Every structure is written in structure tokens, then in C-alpha cells.
Amino acid sequence: MFMMRSQVKGFTLIEVLVVVTILAILSGAIMMTVDLNSDARRLQAAVRQLQAVLSLAQEEAILLGEEYGIIFYRDGYRFLRWYEPEKEEEVEALDEADSSEEDASTEGVITDAKPDDIEATEQTAKSGHWELVQGDRFRGVYHFPEAVSFYAEVEDVELDLIEIEDDKQVAVADDESKSESVSTDQGLAPMVYLLSSGENTPFKLELSLIEEEKQVYVITGDLVGNLTVQRPGDA
């Protein structure tokens, strides 16, 4: 009985190398696609967050009668609030004065405000300053994902932005306190104002992927506080 021996032909080294090369290229393409999709999701999340906190600041400015502002950076942004140390005391003092005037008027006595009181009120208003806001409602600082590019215009003028870590004024303020609101005398000033009257400084913000310039989101705010978001592909 004769045994039939089957001959099996193997792969050559060149064929193996070709297959390995093709697999490596396909794997790289898949990983690149996954990375781009992940970056796209991070970009969308950054846009939604910016839109949400802008709307929150607008609402609080109107409801609480406070003035808010924003500082923009290449890699993020911070919120400011106008702070007057003796504002609450002034309101209480005015309430007491009104009550005293009503009592005096019932007795036939006319009470007039003194010029010195008016000057003191004006001086107190001048003592206010902008402070950094952080706490439950607002973070101390908002960072954009590394893959995101940011561009900002205020009143049709392009802003010359710096990195967050290069802002020496903010660094000083951050070191002073970790409370909900951090004040500083370093002369902080907003780039965009969100006022209690409902008015805003007109602005245009563009967020896009560094590696994919077609993925551009545009957030605009007009003088009366309307916010709009233009997404990639919108007319």
C-alpha cells in the first residue's frame, strides 16, 4: 500500500511582509478614524458647555441684577463678576432711611438727604472691582480639549489671545484664595460684558479641530443677548 504524500506550498517571505504591511496600514487608518471621531465628540462637548455657561451667566446677570464678564484664552475661558463690597450695606441703609423718612413725614417733619451722604454713595460705587468667579455654578477656569482650536472676535475685532498659564493677573488672584469668588486689585477686565440689563458685548467665537478645519462651530452673541450656534454643514 502506497501512502499519498500531499505537497503543501508555503508563503514566501515577501508575501508575508506584504500582508503585514497592509494590515499595519489598515490598523493605522482605523486608529486615525477613531481618534478623529473622539476629537469630534470632544469638540461638540466643548461647544455645548460654552453655550450652556454663557446662557447661565446671562440668566444670573438678569435675575440677580449682577454684572458678569468673560476673559477668553487660546485654550479656555474664565468668568468675572462686578463686586461692590458695601453694596448690601447700602441697600440696608437706604431701606432704613426710607423708613425713617416715612416716620418723620407722619410727624410733619421733612427729612432731606445730606450732600455728604450722596458723595459717600458715589465713592462706594467707585470702589467696586471685577473678581474671578468659581464655585458650584461656575468653574474657576474652563479648558478646551487639546485638539480644539479657538478664535474670538469682539465687536468685529479679532482678539489677541494668550494661554491661560501665561495670564499673570489671574495667577496672582488664584493664589490669593480658593473661595467661590476670588478678588484681586490687579486690574482684571472682561473682554465680553454680560449685563444685568440683558445687553451683551457683541462677539463671535469659532471652535474647530486643529487637524480638521472643516469642523467649525460658530457661537455669536448680539447686543441684546441673543445667542446662536452655527454647526458644520449649516447654511
Shape: elongated
CATH superfamily of the largest domain: minor pseudopilin epsh domain
- What is the N-to-C succession of helices and strands? HEEHHEEEEHEEEEE
Q: Runs with pLDDT <50, length 5+?
A: 108-125, 176-185
Query: Helicity range of the residues?
Result: 25-40%
Count of all domains: 2
CATH topology of the largest domain, by name, is minor pseudopilin epsh fold
What's the CATH architecture name of the largest domain? 3-Layer(bab) Sandwich
Work out the helix count: 4
Rg for CA atoms = 30 Å
Beta-strand fraction estimate: 15-25%
Structural class: alpha+beta
Supply the CATH class of the largest domain.
Alpha Beta
Number of strands: 11
Cα separation of the termini? 82 Å
Mean pLDDT: 76
Walk me through the structure:
With 235 residues, the chain is an alpha+beta fold. It has 2 domains: 14-82 and 131-230, minor pseudopilin epsh fold, CATH 3.55.40; 85-127, no CATH class. The chain is built from 4 helices and 11 strands.
